[in-house]
UniProtKB/TrEMBL annotation, chain A:
One of its GO terms (molecular function) is transmembrane transporter activity. It comes from the Bacteria. The keyword Transmembrane applies. This is ABC transporter permease. It is found in: Cell membrane. The chain crosses the membrane at residues 20-43, 49-70, 77-95, 101-121, 128-149, 169-190, 219-239, 251-269, 276-295, 301-319. Keywords: Cell membrane, Membrane, Transmembrane, Transmembrane helix. GO terms for cellular component: plasma membrane. It is a multi-pass membrane protein. It comes from Paenibacillus abyssi.
Amino acid sequence: MNIGPRNNSDIYQKSKTRNIGSLGLFLVILVFSVLFSILSPVFLTVTNIMNLLIQSSILAVLALGTTFVILTKGIDLSVGGVMAVSSAVGLGMIVNEGAPVYVGVLTSLLIGLLFGLLNGVMVTRFAIPPLIVSLASMAIARGIIQIYTNGANISPVPDSIKYLASGQLFDFPVLLLIVGMLAVIAHLTLCRTVYGRAVYASGGSELAARLAGIRTKRVITGTYVISGVLAAIAGILLAARLESAGPNAGMGIELTVIAAVVIGGTSLFGGQGNIVGTLLGVLLISLISNAVNLLDVPPAWDQLVKGIVIMVAALLDVYRRKYYKTGYAIIK
Amino acid sequence: MKVLDEVHFELSAGEVHALVGQNGAGKSTLAHVIAGVHQMDGGEIYLDEVKVYVKSPFHARRLGISIIKQEPELLPEMTITENIFLGNEVSYLGVFPKGKKMQRESKALLESIGCRLHPNTLVRYLSTTERYIVAIMQAIARKPKLLIMDEPSEKLTDHEREQLFKLIEDLKKQGIAILYITHRLQEIPRICDRITILRDGKHVITRKPEGLSEQDTIKLMIGHDISRMFPPINENLGSELLRVENLSVKPWFEAISFQLREGEILGLAGLVGAGRTALAATIFGQIQKHIGTIYYKNQPVNIMHPHQAVSNSWAYVNEDRLESGLMKDMSVSNNISISNMAKNSRYNFLQKNQEQVLVLDQIIDLGIKVMHIDQEVKYLSGGNQQKVVLARWLAADSEIYLLDEPTRGIDIGSKAELYIRIQELARQGKGIILISTDIQEIIGLCTRTLVMHRGKITGDLSQRETTEESITSLMTGEQ
């Protein structure tokens, strides 16, 4: 009864359709880009593209963390709040208490980590739905900022932090280097490490992963910690870019982050998605904001246009994925 | 690819028609086409001599075609009654449901199969078997003309199976035609009037079951002979691997003590609900024990979480492989290597080449049918999925295997292969605990058999004492 594969090379052969996911989104971005460059002569200039990437950097950092959380079937609504509170308190340490810069930065990171831990522990140990947990911690974060800043902006930002946003290294913006580095680390963590594999497994089926010997609660808590720390990093970068930390920074950004991650192909049901997709999702959303600015859309129309375009992009994505799915089913 | 190729057969009122074939032969697909789940590319379906085109499952239901799927779709947050009468509620003026009447009827339906569940129980609390019974009742309550049963007896215990057969007799008398898909060839002559065999989507034969031996059926199904179902039992037992003393988890089982030796296949027989699955889950750390001690190689171990069991080199094949055995969306390769990541990594970075070698070894060894190692596991057939679960634990080089219904829903060819594999493991000195509702399987594989009844061990049978009668009487608590 010979039912196995014919030989090793047969099964070793990689699926050719596997990366279609990201490719489809890439095509959508390409189509939009062509459209925008026809509509606006400024769009396809080096300055504008650099601008676009820099504007997308905060979103990108937050989206990296959210990808981890969504991969485990979770959701983190607190990223905007955590970003704001960690940047405000961190900068406050430097400006108000006269602490050295590194202490301020470490304070920010610590705040991010603690919020992540809080979210993770509440979700895994007390089995509270992630939506509720992170909604509550978002409110807590926003509340702390209000108390801490009394509604006022904190400035000035020390030069060494400003360098993160405005500095150039080998004629390349430092900010983009940092985001790129974080993305590479996130990507390698998901694809190459034991932890990354455990993240996918816990999201795919928590029970099955547990029975396969994975400490799913720790793994899931870890994703919230990653999300929190990345939110803190985003907070530092935001302070560097805006040259101040304000109580209303990043208001409502969490929904844009989630939209970017999901458009990037990460399933809200967990277990499926990757960093490349997330970056493309971020790129698409930033592209739209950029175009809305360039094309002189009246400010009142801004939100409406953005909403419609995101909807269309998501729709294209669904069609793409449907095709991809049936394509697979035929092989079966 | 064609899943079905020019299959034709007819079914008359009051007939039970068996549909058999290996996994992937197209039985379920055929059933789904008739029930409107899938659409056909060509061909015709006649119902009561009228040509029909079944557009959707809803349409099928209106035509009087009911299907009981392998994985029933019930609403876990509703009661048994509500599920049974879903979309079919008995009501005043079509608005106000007659709760009491439906409750009485569903109670009667449940009793007709000897099931004593209260009709107001939420489906969420039911076991796999009990859910299946509810699904059967749901189909019957719709008063179909044609009832399709897709492997109904697979999830039932012998006792419930008997009740099901009686029920089928009743339905037959009412003139309902039944299409009965099964892997269990021994039940065909008992209940079926005719049999149709499919192989690779093609129609092989339709005939009366009289005079068609099980051997012949298998031959027609797979195209060649299987000389022997069960390999010889390993008789070389080594030293003690596992000892369980006085283990209790209320309300599932209490005061369980036994010992497992190297090279031993220890059978756990019993009715569904006798506490066997809970026992395995407790040993593996999925359920926390209340009292009792577990010794591994004579050292007491305190397993609080499955990861401790895995690092002790224990393996657990669950009865519900799609829910709790496999990560459906992950690749075959990742599913196989998931419990062995510590060995396949350096500084927490996965060594992909090493991993690939390991995975390929298992795939070739077990003859798992895959397109490539990154194929998602949900696209494999049931037998192949089960092999993937086993491959994971083989790859992890486990010492103790807890196998809970390892052959459920698997065709005969794959079963025979798994049996050989299990016996080989025993020969290599591994310890195996086998939970099975299939008594033949227990008799054919096990060195020793423990029989459980209502959470207690009622019998400890050596291989010589293991017979169908001795197990049956012990597990129903007659002795």
